Amino acid sequence: MRIALGIEYNGAGFHGWQMQQHGIRSVQHEVERAIAQVADHPVRVHCAGRTDTGVHAREQVIHFDTRAQRPLRAWTQGVNVNLPDDVSVLWAAHVPVEFHARFSAERRRYRYRILNRPLRSALQHGRVTWIHQPLDAEVMHAAAQALAGTHDFSSYRALGCQAKSPVRTLHHISVQRCGEILELDIEANAFLHHMVRNIAGVLIAIGKGDVDSRWAKEVLELRDRSLGGVTAPPGGLYFEKVLYPQRFGDVLGLKPF
Q1: What's the rounded Cα separation, in Å, for the pair 43 and 40?
Q2: Is 52 labeled as catalytic in the residue annotation?
Q3: Exactly one of 52, 86, 136, 152 is catalytic; which is it?
């Protein structure tokens, strides 16, 4: 049978989601090891979206196939017993065999969190990006709207990005301030490598007043990553949510965005 799980993790102690060689710690390794303890056989999991070193997830979605007959609570409570403290299963669901955590997804949402105050935070270290210069959230939000829609995001992807096409559709992008925290929310059909962090880097430069607000659009139109801005640090980035077609969303119990 095929099982889907919702997973949250603090990425600060991991070298990303994907399995690494030479014993380097990854989320995938920890999750597969824990599930195998409950299933009593090796498993391979597939995720909705890979995350990089230091990036967190509030509701990553994964699936795996198993011959083990277990109640759903075994795939939540039982797996959690075998996971380290920085990874946790949120829910479990039986899904049809045609469901795929990655390829069935229609949209994904990320959030980038910025602590904007003069002094750094010890409690939020590794969980936000600290910018001590004042940021203008309204200017950042206005500048970000130039990125909404379907575009060639070559200027906003990593030089080593292996995606076949740089074209992505950005359904929503916003910047909002809540006290000392700025939140950049981005929803798209899919994302390129470092795409959110590169967008965040450009918007931070705009928010500080280092560049004109038109720079976000100008960078997009250049279609050249070497002419873009800096890549923002990973600690402020969270994989937030996945949207699936209704036939799968109902089974998973996922709420729409």
Answers
A1: 9
A2: yes
A3: 52
